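New here. Your pick:
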Amino acid sequence: MPVEPFLLPPKPLTSVDEYRTWGGGQGLPRAIDLGPEQTVQEIQLSGLRGRGGAGFRTGRKWDSLFRATGSTKYVVCNGAEGEPGTFKDRSLMRANPYQIVEGVAIAARTVGAREAFICLKAKFEREVANMTRAVAEMEQAGLTGEIAITIVQGPDEYLYGEEKAMLEVIEGKAPLPRLFQPYEQGLFAVAPQMGWEATPTDVVAGSASSGRAEANPTLISNAETMANIPKILARGAEWHRSLGTNESPGHVVCTVVGDVNHAGVAEIELGIPLMEAIDSVGGGVRDGHRIKAVFSGVASAVITSDELDTPLTYERMRKIGSGLGSAGYVVYDETACMVDLAHTFARFLYVESCGQCPACKFGTGEITAYLERLLQLRADDRDIETIGARMRTVTDGNRCALPVEARDVISSFLRCFPEEFADHLEGRPCEGRHDLPLPKIDDIVDGVAVFDPRQQFKNPDWTYSDGGPADA
């Protein structure tokens, strides 16, 4: 059933005037009228949940930052989209950058931030240009208040999208996750951060000038989450509650790629069945085939063919052992080899692991190596036992969710497709498709998803073996 969009307009907005004509620019004045505390309450009443993947309740996060002590706070918008199968944030930045900027301005005013940052990957050239233009136009139009908003261009690493690692990048360092959460130790904190390297006090803005240790609590919200805020304030919490389901209200921007008739991105209402989303956004499974497996990026367990009627809500997707994630779905039909795909996913997580947590780097590496042996029909029972052992320890001491993702998604392959793994273990030739690309999307053009061609050449130390520069 078609929905009335409030995130993705029918055609891209190219000016503040077009944004205002579409109903934009009403959120910040409403936030000013309500005041910070009532704005937080309105977001809480709306039931909005973070669209970055975890689904944490946005109002609760904002409330904790609003009430946090400290003379300096910051706001960060996470637009470093890197989850395979996902193209939602870049679609928003291309079609409606102004709404993201207004959401950031509202967030900064509400929690009392001194400055805000919008983080993207430097390779997102089109999106960087759009967001830079939108910030300048919104500032000139007085639609950002007095908040300074800075565009940050970061590296292509998967962990750049991890919120603690994102703080490191803003401070000019590598995307290596810190120990403490941003609300505990935020941007430019002078107190011990337990990161890979501390921030020298002589380069810290604001708090360092006082000579005191400051935690600088920092709010980090996903770009799509920020885009929801202006419409919720302009139309009211009850309006947002009327969409979706009671526990998962609202719309999401959904991506569908893989073995479908066409790749696509569209705004859908939460609560519709997964199969309906695949049909409406991706045109259904490619003609003459049937769906074998669906993945929400590499962050959640496999969704099998008998679970396609599951409603797209956080709680129902969790109930089947998977997750809503960032609503980016990769579809595979019956011709795909699941052992090959498990190896592809495992290798991605291995090379993207930063190495700060030895159990993660070693465990994801071993899982990848033994899956490769299995794929080459050279494995034995001890190899399968080793994979199982590493999945039990890979999360020991983890600073981020990457090893959790490895454990959850690889164990789901073994659980849902035991026959295929048994065939490879016993040396029987596999008739499924191999060399399946990692669905890390560079672009979607005319219904065709373009996957990053360099990912296969990436090494565990974040260099590339294709001879090109690491930041290409």
About this structure: The mean pLDDT is 92. The radius of gyration is 22 Å. The CA atoms of residues 97 and 157 lie 23 Å apart. The longest strand covers residues 251-258.
